[in-house]
Amino acid sequence: MDKLGALIAVGLTAEIFAWREGCVLKLFRLGRSPQTLEYEARLSRAVHATGLPVPAVGDVIEMNGRFGLELERVDGPSMTEMLIRKPWKLPLFARQLANLQADMHTRQVPELPSQKECLISKISGAEKLPEQVRRGTSRVQRAQLLGRGVQHEPRRRRVALGDARPREDEP
Asked: What's the predicted TM-score (pTM) here?
């Protein structure tokens, strides 16, 4: 059995550990089902297959009752770290990020869920929202999804960055 290496990063839903040669293990907190991870792995593989610069995905791993995803290790500083070290490169980094975002939105992945459907699901499951708000918002969103009275383009499953959040140590 492989052993976890050094803790590299901590996030809201998982911790990242050094793992096998050239890999890290994204080890999710207790409560995540293997089916949820298999789904995430399948979507991540589909995005990787588009040629975008994202880590390759390996196996779903079970360790001490927790499940994790084996990911290709990408070493080096983050763009945020580089910006702190070399603030005069802000225009270059902004251009790189904008180009990546534009490229990302040209990639179609049929396996990806609809952003609107994800939004409806999150609003419907937001326990802190009053029930009346959840029901009303969901009704409006469903009407938009079905195209009632709303002009929209045909549905295409494009890649979108839906998990952007600052690290806990950032304002």
From this structure: 0.68
